[in-house]
## 1
Amino acid sequence: MSIQIKNILVAKDMSKESSNVIRYALSLGAKFHAQVHVLHVMPTVDPSVLNMVALTMGADKLAKLNAQNEAELAGKTREQLQKIIQDEAELVNEELVHPPKIEVHHGDPAPMILKVADRLDVDLIVLGSHSKGKLHYAFLGSVAEKILRKTHRAVTILPPHVGEEK
């Protein structure tokens, strides 16, 4: 059995540790000559908060303001991701055949990652984990755990600080 990886999806939050996750995905992309897709999912505002603000501000004004803010935040996030990708690509020893592609979406992270993975038909999803403790996972679960339970794709989960200089 030969492993072929043509498309890699790396889901990135904006934590400092997740730069290592991008470097790891870029290294895999270089080794397999695969296309790397970097995804950041921006959380949405809780609907109950939106309803309260809509009552005060007006639904039309809120919708317009929300759309402007989402577009502005997505643009700034794309710029930040582009800078991180450039910095991390310089640390990868091999040359990337395909420049990484960036996507920024709003929504619930796990379902959005799965949706994008299906749309792009990726061969591998790369995620970082956050050691937040047992109690956090017992009650809330994690994005990585939700993805592992619901996907049929290969998933690589990197613990914090993987690839850092010691």
Note: The first helix runs from residue 18 to 32.
## 2
Amino acid sequence: MTGFINVDKAEGLSSAREVGRIKWLTQTPCGHMGTLDPMASGVLPVAIGNAARLFDYLSNKTKRYTATFLFGTDSDTLDTTGEITERGGKIPTAEEINSVLHEFVGEIEQIPPKYSAKCVNGMRGYMLARKGVEFELSPKKVKIFSVELVSHPAPDAYTFDIECGGGTYIRSLARDLAARLGTCAVMSALTRTKSGIFTLESAVRTENLTKENIAEYIIPTEKVLDYESIYPSPAEAKKLFNGLSVESGLKGGLYKIFDAEGSFYGISEVKDGFLKVRTKLC
């Protein structure tokens, strides 16, 4: 059994718990394509079996979030699950926020939260932070395609629609946006509405999955990749599927490659005029 389940992770559940549920239902090793913190909800693609080998192809796909930032408040985790370190700070107006949002669009540098999975000397940041160890994280480049203020649900809260590349920390965006406005902010709610081809509209709660119906929700592996498909000749396939490369007139890049029976074999790459299988999935 291989493919993907587009899980709608519920708030309060860990990503590991959701993966464990799919693993139990399928009796197959599974892994998620980009974790969500327990306080977050929304799209969590879970790879079943060999589909997990596609992690590197999917991890940098565009993601979309609906996030609420609580202004005038700060915490050690940059969200409302942590220890509150400041209250009563300045609450900006919608006009003030909109006047600076463009500064956070494009390729920007962002310092990850200390309570994150970033490694420092071989240890996760959140593990060091929980132990009270002082450390600094280096800035990383991330891509933010758009940030739009969509609502003002409370006097001190604003909700945003954010489209960004993989590896972007929404909590860090809350911190940096607030700092630009001379105040502080924490993330109080987060829903991932899109991750690559996976959208919230087509996601399913694991509580609704059973051993009898889960097959209906498995998305074939080849359906999640938007690469062009190629079907090598028998002579080419013999070489390719034995780890060799063949000359190709195709333009450079990645392709989905199929065997003689039309079954999805894996990911291939054309480079310098030669085609070679890069990742085998069958």
Note: The two ends are 10 Å apart (CA to CA).
